């Protein structure tokens, strides 16, 4: 995996984790925090889906060593992004269950 791909994944992971922890420790009421967290997590989910789609689109470039390397990077990034999406979905489900 290239350094830039690892950096992108680390950045997205850090953003999601930092935002979730920051909101959880913010001094607002619980329902306000859950609403904010749900909104932000849905935005991160959309961004992750866009990243996955971009990586998949770039995968269809002409045959070469770069393409093979790109496919490997895309697959690694897709797996990590999908895991992040699952984590976001799980957090959103927990938040929704707490509000009802």
TrEMBL record:
Keyword line: Coiled coil
Recorded coiled-coil stretches: 41-98
InterPro entries membership: Desiccation-related_membrane, YtxH
Domain of life: Bacteria
Any matching Pfam family: YtxH
Name of this chain's protein: YtxH domain-containing protein
Organism of provenance: Dyadobacter frigoris
Taxonomic path: Bacteria, Pseudomonadati, Bacteroidota, Cytophagia, Cytophagales
């Amino acid at each position: 995996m290239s350094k830039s791909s690892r950096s992108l994944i680390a950045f997205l992971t850090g953003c999601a984790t930092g935002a979730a922890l920051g909101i959880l420790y913010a001094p607002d009421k619980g329902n306000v925090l859950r609403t904010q967290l749900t909104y932000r997590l849905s935005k991160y989910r959309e961004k992750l889906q866009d990243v996955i789609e971009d990586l998949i689109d770039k995968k269809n470039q002409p045959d070469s060593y770069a393409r093979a390397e790109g496919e490997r990077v895309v697959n690694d990034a897709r797996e990590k992004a999908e895991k992040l999406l699952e984590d976001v979905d799980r957090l959103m489900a927990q938040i929704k269950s707490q509000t009802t």
